[in-house]
């Protein structure tokens, strides 16, 4: 069973969804037969690497709401994250462009470390409030999970994997993905959003019966 996940590492629901899917997999009796692959999706492909404004101000402008409303929304999201064991500092996170982070995930996949890289980027962004658009940060995070520093630096200084990122984003458009997280199982069943773990489990069980045991 293949589960493809379109996500962006600056998407708070994507990290929550990752944990909920992991909870479902822990209860799925055929979990050893499940392969998970991440697909690139940039929530804001035109984003700058550095912003002078803080994230509250940026979101307030983007949605045309008050800073108080953004803070209230962040508080609600923080509580949701806490329910799955995650610590969010949404009022302090550093908005940035995620193209290089996605390229880094593609590199990590070549060495069997895709999931570790995704997890490390999520934690760095939401929990540690690191600047995941900066080369220095990305190199540090990649070497932490065991990737070769020279290879990472060389890749980031090139345009390697950019075509792969764009191809996966194009794929998302063709499938009809308009928001993330978005999960596709065996290219046949779709789950949109960070659904409760029970939803993931039910769909996986349904797919197993229909696709494998038929």
From TrEMBL:
What superkingdom does the record give? Bacteria
Q: Pfam family of this protein, just one?
A: DSBA
DSBA-like thioredoxin domain boundaries: 3-202
Write the protein's name.
DsbA family oxidoreductase
């Amino acid at each position: 069973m293949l589960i493809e996940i379109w996500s962006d590492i600056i998407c708070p629901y994507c990290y929550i969804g990752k944990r909920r899917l992991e909870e479902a997999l822990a209860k799925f009796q055929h979990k050893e037969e499940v392969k998970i692959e991440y697909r690139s999706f940039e929530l804001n492909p035109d984003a700058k690497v550095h912003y002078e404004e803080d994230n509250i101000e940026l979101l307030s402008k983007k949605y045309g709401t008050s800073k108080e409303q953004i803070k209230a929304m962040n508080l609600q999201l923080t509580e949701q994250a806490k329910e799955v064991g995650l610590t969010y500092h949404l009022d302090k996170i550093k908005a940035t462009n995620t193209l290089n982070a996605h390229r880094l995930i593609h590199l990590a996949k070549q060495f069997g470390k895709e999931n570790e890289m995704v997890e490390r980027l999520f934690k760095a962004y939401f929990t540690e409030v690191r600047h995941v658009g900066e080369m220095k940060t990305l190199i540090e995070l990649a070497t932490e999970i065991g990737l070769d520093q020279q290879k990472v630096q060389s890749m980031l200084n090139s345009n390697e994997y950019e075509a792969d990122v764009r191809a996966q984003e194009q794929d998302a458009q063709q499938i009809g993905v308009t928001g993330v997280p978005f999960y596709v199982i065996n290219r046949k069943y779709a789950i949109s959003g960070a659904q409760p773990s029970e939803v993931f489990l039910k769909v996986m069980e349904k797919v197993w019966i229909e696709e494998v045991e038929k």
